[in-house]
Amino acid sequence: MAASTSQTLRLNPIRNASLSLSSKLPLSSAFSVSLNPRWRQQSRRLVLIVSAGLDAKPTILVAEKLGAAGLDLLKDFANVDCSYNLTPEELCTKISLCDALIVRSGTKVSREVFESSGGRLKVVGRAGVGIDNVDLAAATEHGCLVVNAPTANTVAAAEHGIALMAAMARNVAQADASVKAGKWQRNKYVGVSLVGKTLAVMGFGKVGTEVARRAKGLGMHVIAHDPYAPADRARAIGVELVSFDEAISKADFISLHMPLTPATSKVLNDETFAKMKKGVRIVNVARGGVIDEDALVKALDAGIVAQAALDVFTVEPPAKDSKLILHENVTATPHLGASTMEAQEGVAIEIAEAVVGALKGELAATAVNAPMVPAEVLTELKPYVELAEKLGRLAVQLVAGGSGVKSVKVTYASARAPDDLDTRLLRAMITKGLIEPISSVFVNLVNADFTAKQRGIRITEERIILDGSPESPLDFIQVQIANVESKFASAISESGEIKVEGRVKDGIAHLTRVGSFEVDVSMEGSLILCRQVDQPGMIGTVGSILGEENVNVSFMSVGRIAPRKQAVMAIGVDDQPSKESLKKIGDVPAIEEFVFLKL
């Protein structure tokens, strides 16, 4: 197609302003020039923005170094501008000329960047996993897709974990420093062997699985904890899935590979260290926040933990006077898990393919933000979107570890015709609720189906057509998980599946069914479910236990089969009760089982 020949110049008169045109900006033969209305008082200058013609090749700005293989893929499709070490002002100036932006962790893609793009920026690619440096809310508001590269560094991270474990066991770092200091302390640095030792892999995802494979090759006995990993996948490589407490109490070595979520934050703490075998050794190439670092220092000093090898920290870089870093039994590296030449090239290729695919209009499997939804649709579905995610989040927390979630059935009851109710967003939010609490993946409308398929989860949908007015889009949503055991047996329906059901009442998501029991509790804060003998005083007893700890009860509902028989009490709480309070609830004679759930 021939390039457009139209050229326009639009300038707003501003007094005492000087015009500057960046010499770095590439121009095509067809271009338009417009004035950026952003006025910077401190510089007192007017920045002239030049944009390419509509039918020119797209322009991709690479703001941090990217592997050559990735750059070659980009150059085959687009004009590529490699401009490194840009200041925030320079990035905002250049961005209105770009259709896509690729960064690593050093460039902040702020709301100001999206506003400066004038709507042209379509894709931001993060060459790596974390997206803390990208304002996702602003990206979504401006209709910009954000993609990352989450898989290319799997082997590199696993290899680094094994390297740290071996170096720690044989005191490599300490002995090296000693020799370079002119000492020869062979007796001081006697190590331990890996062969025959028990390794507990905490988190059996991609990296954890690769660590397990390599540890088996070193002659180690490998056990793993991951409440949502399929047992058959673990068995296939000779790994036994066990409970959290069993894993940490049996292990000679513990290797952490779990995502940082509210459930895993500081999961290794004073209480869990006390359960470990004396002399245990810990490796962390996952996320710094999963370890309570002060508690780890105490465990090292007490000899509970013999050694630790850490690649990640709660704050990076850690303080120079950090007691943990300076501890003689700690081996530390500066977040090198993905730092191999091969991994960097793999990340470059992965992010280049994702960005090019997104610019071609293809659905990006690694998208980390939701695409724009028409305002009128979003307004109507908003409370049901919240309901859908919370039902998924609640259902997966009811699953007992070991079997893994494989089959999910979603039922929508509505008076609307099928063509008048698009359930893709609702299905995506249920998938988000099912997966995000147990992984580091960001799930949205773009990648929900792919993410579920990747994890072997089959989601089927069923619609119940109701009589009545179609003013409300839905009467209820029901989520069922088949072929799993439950932490709360009462959540199992008569047909054998975990079943939860909810409705929207006055704009608020409500849980209305658990298993065969009808309840009615607002899905706000957190939830306690208790199966009890239906007898007087139960509400008061549980309420008093919570009141003693100043835990506010927002809602309480009891569903029963028949008077004086079994009942399920659902209690909404604003705060998380202590373990002691939950134990008191469990010790009430009439309570047969209970579970605490975070919504």
Query: Which residue ranges are poorly predicted, with pLDDT under 50 across at least 5 consecutive positions?
Result: 1-55
Percentage of β-strand residues: 15-25%
Number of domains: 4
CATH top level assignment of the largest domain: Alpha Beta
Average pLDDT: 85
| Order of adjacent strands in the largest pleated sheet | 12-11-10-13-14-15-16
CATH topology name of the largest domain, in short, is Rossmann fold
| CATH homologous superfamily placement of the largest domain | NAD(P)-binding Rossmann-like Domain
Largest sheet: number of strands, sense, barrel closure: 7 strands, parallel
**Roughly how many Å is the radius of gyration?**
28 Å
Distance between the termini: 53 Å
Molecular shape: globular
How many DSSP helices? 18
Q: What is the tally of beta strands? A: 26
- The CATH architecture of the largest domain is 3-Layer(aba) Sandwich
Task: From the structure above, extract its key features.
60s Ribosomal Protein L30, Chain: A; Rossmann fold; alpha/beta; NAD(P)-bd_dom_sf; globular; 4 domains; serine biosynthesis; six-stranded mixed sheet
What are the SSEs and their pairings?
Elements: E1 9-10, E2 18-20, E3 31-35, E4 45-52, E5 59-62, H1 68-77, E6 79-82, H2 88-94, E7 100-103, H3 111-116, E8 123-126, H4 136-141, E9 145-148, H5 154-169, H6 172-180, E10 198-202, H7 206-217, E11 221-225, H8 231-236, E12 240-241, H9 244-250, E13 253-256, H10 270-274, E14 280-284, H11 293-302, E15 305-310, H12 323-326, E16 330-332, H13 341-359, H14 375-397, E17 407-414, H15 424-435, H16 448-454, E18 458-465, E19 476-482, E20 498-505, E21 508-514, E22 517-522, E23 526-533, H17 538-548, E24 553-560, E25 566-573, H18 579-587, E26 591-598
Parallel strand pairs: 1-3, 2-4, 5-6, 5-7, 7-8, 8-9, 10-11, 10-13, 11-12, 13-14, 14-15, 15-16, 17-18
Antiparallel strand pairs: 3-4, 17-19, 19-20, 20-21, 21-22, 23-25, 23-26, 24-25
Helix pairs in contact: 1-13, 5-7, 14-15, 15-16
